[in-house]
Specification:
Strand content: 25-35%
Shape: globular
Low-confidence stretches: none
Number of helices: 5
CATH class of the largest domain: Alpha Beta
Largest sheet: 9 strands, mixed
Mean pLDDT: 95
Number of strands: 13
Radius of gyration: 19 Å
CATH topology of the largest domain: D-amino Acid Aminotransferase, Chain A, domain 2
Helix content: 10-25%
CATH architecture of the largest domain: Alpha-Beta Barrel
Length: 276
């Protein structure tokens, strides 16, 4: 909801494209984009009273889901599917500015298999991360970072978020791998960084390279950017960026990105779709 009280949806077309891309990968029925857009608008209008007011930092989170619902016992694609959308208001993730987090690497756990479904938005993908995430939390780490499942040499992504880094000469770097989930937020931050004149690199990132970055973060829908200032792997501790708060480049990207979402900056990318 913007300052004028108007409600707009952020990048629904890309989310429609991603759910269908995922459906194709696992042989599910695709859901027509026009019906997807109509369903999103209808569920928001039906829950308009739950869209938080401008200035609170809170939003209405939208989660579309597609699942096989026809009666079937064999291991084959379903003959019937159900599409639903749930919405829920969510509060501002950070109330006192961006807060840096610590992450841990477990070499005996992988998020996804090579040539598997790591690049698909699939509920089952999160199952592999439940135990390591629990172990990370028990060890005092809010986040877990995964390496490539073949060599454990290259950075893949965080448990529920893509990886991004800022080099000391101001480049935006994010990882490239066939087993990484394409993030709508990461895509937007890449486009924004390029718009602001920053070089953008999508490439493999060796674990040994982490200590050479100026800033590191996780990025995702709920928080946009989560600064990561410490990464632990066994006895190795890598410290990057400020101990408190957020680095200047990540803060700049966050400010511009969220200003577009709230309607405080011009939507030069055409990311916002009016609802009412």
């Amino acid at each position: 909801r913007n300052k004028a009280g108007k409600v707009r949806v952020f990048r629904p077309e890309m989310n429609a494209a991603r759910i269908n891309s995922s459906a194709r990968q696992i042989m599910m029925a695709e859901f027509p984009e026009d019906m997807f857009m109509d369903a999103v608008k209808r569920v928001i209008k039906a829950n308009m009273e739950f869209v938080p007011p401008y200035g609170t930092g809170a939003t209405l989170y939208i989660r579309p889901m597609l699942f096989g619902s026809g009666p079937q016992i064999g291991v084959n694609p379903a003959k019937e599917y159900t599409f639903i959308i749930l919405v829920t208001p969510v509060g501002a993730y950070y109330k006192g500015g961006l807060t840096p987090m610590r992450a841990i690497v477990f070499d005996d756990h992988d998020r996804a298999a090579p040539h598997g479904t790591g690049h698909v938005k699939l509920g089952g993908n999160y199952a592999a991360s439940l135990l390591p995430h629990h172990l990370a939390n028990k060890a005092g780490f809010p986040m877990d970072l995964y390496l490539d499942p073949i060599e454990h040499k290259y950075v893949e992504e965080f448990g529920t978020s893509n990886f991004l880094a800022i080099t000391k000469d101001g480049k935006y770097v994010t990882t490239k791998s066939p087993s990484i989930l394409p993030s709508v937020t990461n895509d937007g931050l890449c486009k924004l960084a390029a718009h602001l004149g920053m070089p953008v690199e999508r490439r493999r990132v060796a674990f040994e390279e982490l200590e050479d970055f100026a800033e590191i973060a996780a990025c995702g829908t709920a928080v946009v950017i989560t600064p990561v200032n410490e990464i632990v792997r066994g006895d190795k501790v890598i410290k990057v960026g400020p101990r408190e708060g957020c680095g200047p480049v990540l803060q700049k990207l966050y400010n511009h990105y969220t200003a577009i979402q709230w309607g405080d900056e011009e939507d030069v990318f055409g990311w916002l779709t009016p609802v009412d």
